[in-house]
Design brief:
It contains 1 helix and 40 strands. By secondary structure, it is an all-beta fold.
Length: 461
């Protein structure tokens, strides 16, 4: 087995909760509330008193205050916030905020009253081009979809009362929320042509969160007695019950990671709230019990989880000094603060099948890291390509994953088809930055005389 010391410019990716080894809990100032987070876990948004904020929390010392408005959602790049604010006429209306424009009204549907306001934005697509929410006809809610090209359009009215669009998939296609069914609000979904349907008008419920491509939905549904239960849904399948943390409270699933590794939410009963997370392996875990087990002691009462990063590593929400008590404050919880290595696929088979590239080590300044290549041509040579961005271009019958910012080689592969490199993670790498790696190996058994490992991404915490 070959071992080498190489100066590899690596950048890490956020680890999934199961690999947690270094947790971080950040409590925001009193009277704040964290409502959303960008998929990469970098930008957190929410409210601070009567204002809003956004915070690049790993790089900036403190949140940036956005005067006025109630920001509830953020675009993937962190540059657009949506929520509700008072327009010049003094009406509460759906709005979008950017640094260049400040708060700008998205309008409201015809016949909008002021009960409780004329309109409200609840979510925004990843690219920031589609906004969903509710406008009112008197006191009856109407769900809407907004784009700059179409303005505000009413989604198909469902049932016999108020509708609400609460969430939109990151790709801007599927919209979730509720219609007014036979008993109460009933889980509903709409598509871009504005048409929609309730899952079952005889069952109370709401869709509250969607992943990036809309294949996973989460929310709450009635299960009997006086309580609701959290659910998830895969594609167009049935609603899968995941329960609640407390048997005397209703479970609300608020958000889901892109791959379903983590669902976050809270239990509610009256003014009481208690935050929880759910994984396929553990089921629902209350944060107030989980944090001490992770080595975080002295935390305030964890009240609500509102949003989660795409990989399930970072959760945001709100705390209080007791069950439903005041003061309240937002929180940011990172289950792993050491970065991770991600398999990006696109291996190209050679003599031993697909060569496999893995990485290990915490992606922290001057911390030991290593990469391991296996299943490569025994006794052959390999070239390691390192990129500061992804290329994903066709090459030699396969896919060249990294941009070729650095090429190291030729490097000798041992008789077992393995090659190991060791180094130290460099200092000064920005938070959330990904470096890409891939080996290319001359191999007569390859499609065009080459084999290639899978791409490997390393993203800093």
């Amino acid at each position: 087995m070959t071992s080498r010391l190489a100066s590899l410019a690596l950048v890490a990716a956020v680890c999934i909760p199961a690999a947690a080894s270094a947790q971080t809990l950040v409590i925001l100032p009193d009277n704040s509330w964290a409502t959303d987070i960008t998929p990469d876990g970098r930008i957190v948004v929410g409210t601070q008193g009567s204002d809003s904020f956004y915070w690049d929390w790993k790089n900036d010392a403190a949140p940036t205050i956005v005067p006025d408005g109630y920001a509830v959602a953020v675009s993937d790049d962190g540059l657009k916030l949506v929520g509700v604010f008072k327009d010049p006429a003094g009406d509460d209306v759906a709005g979008m905020w950017t640094a260049a424009t400040g708060w700008v009204s998205l309008g409201y549907l015809p016949n909008a009253g002021s009960c409780p306001g004329k309109s409200r934005a609840n979510d925004i697509s990843g690219d920031g081009n589609v906004v969903v929410g509710s406008s009112w006809d008197g006191c009856s809610g109407r769900a809407f979809r907004w784009t700059a090209a179409t303005g505000m359009q009413e989604l198909q009215h469902l049932g016999n009362g108020s509708d609400r669009a609460t969430c939109i998939a990151g790709d801007g296609v599927l919209i979730g929320g509720y219609g007014r069914g036979m008993v109460s609000t009933s889980t509903a979904f709409w598509v871009p042509d504005l048409s929609g349907a309730m899952i079952d008008p005889n069952v109370s419920g709401q869709a509250l969160g969607l992943n990036n491509d809309g294949t996973l939905a989460v929310g709450t549904q009635y299960i009997g007695g006086n309580y609701n239960s959290a659910f998830y849904r895969v594609d167009n399948g049935p609603l899968v019950d995941i329960g609640s943390l407390n048997s005397t409270m209703s479970g609300r699933a608020q958000a889901v990671s892109d791959g379903g590794e983590m669902i976050v939410g809270y239990d509610a009963q009256g003014f009481g709230r208690e935050a929880w997370v759910w994984t396929p392996a553990s089921g629902i875990l209350g944060l107030n019990a989980l944090l001490p087990a992770l080595g975080i002691t002295g935390a305030p009462f964890m009240q609500v989880c509102n949003a989660v990063s795409a990989d399930g590593n970072i959760v945001v929400g709100g705390v209080s000094n007791g069950l439903g008590g005041l003061p309240q404050a937002g929180f940011i919880l990172a289950f792993n603060d050491t970065g991770s290595w991600n398999d990006l696929g696109h291996a190209l088979a050679g003599a031993l099948g697909d060569p496999n590239l893995t990485g290990s080590g915490d992606l922290l300044p001057l911390t030991p890291v290593s990469t391991s290549l296996s299943n490569a041509l025994p006794g052959g040579s390999a070239w390691l390509l390192i990129g500061l961005s992804a290329l994903n271009a066709p090459f030699k019958g396969g896919v060249l994953v990294p941009n070729g910012d650095m090429i190291v080689g030729p490097l000798g592969i041992d008789g077992a088809g393995e090659l190991n490199l060791s180094s130290f993670w460099p200092s000064g790498v920005p938070s959330g930055f990904t470096t890409y790696f891939q080996y290319w190996i001359p191999d007569a058994a390859g499609v065009k005389g080459y084999a290639a490992s899978n791409g490997l991404g390393a993203t800093t915490p």
